[in-house]
Design brief:
Elements (H helix, E strand, L loop, with lengths): L3 E8 L30 H8 L4 E6 H8 L8 H8 L2 E4 L11 E3 L4 H9 L5 E5 L2 H9 L5 E7 L19 E8 L5 E7 L15 H8 L4
Parallel strand pairs: 1-5, 1-6, 2-3, 2-5, 3-4
Antiparallel strand pairs: 6-8, 7-8
Length: 215
Amino acid sequence: MRKLIVNTFMSLDGVMQAPGGPEEDPTGGFTLGGWAANFFDDEMMDQMAASGPYELLLGRGTYEIFAAHWPYDEGPIADHLNGTRKHVASTTLKRVEWSNSTLIEGDVADYVRELKGGDGPEIQVHGSPGLIQTLLEHDLVDELRTWIFPLTLGTGKRLFGDGTIPGALRLTSSKASKTGVTINFYERAGEIDVGSFEFEEPTEAELERRKHLGS
């Protein structure tokens, strides 16, 4: 079984829209595109380039951004992205022309389940906020790699939406860049284990408080 990994840049308040530039994704009136660019240092670039083999699973918007950039760039990151297999989820694209790209036909969740059950390297999702909501809703994400930048954006497309299924996560790796970006790796860890700091026998004040909840 192959792992599906969401690898995303996000602000402290969870926004992942248009980290790379002002024209990357201005949909919805988003005006802060490019918010991540000035935080990158050599160490962060080296970590991105050092990633092992993986295939890409992309939504339409991120596919189009990547396809308009990476075939015209050079270096280890460009070489990997151009050479690896790419799976594209879209209901509007008729064809995909970037090398080694396949347009997903039929139900995306079913396609991804079959993809995970096959042979090959891990599957990574980059960007693609809309696609991520579908993957979270169908419990298809095995690992989250969040690059959290030290800023808040207020509005924009977020990593976690209404379709997110409750679940526990285990932090497996964490480091901070010299520019203050924290890079955290989380794996799925089963169900949420609920506990309580309350007294075994609630006080009269607590019982009274509960009567007014929601009022």
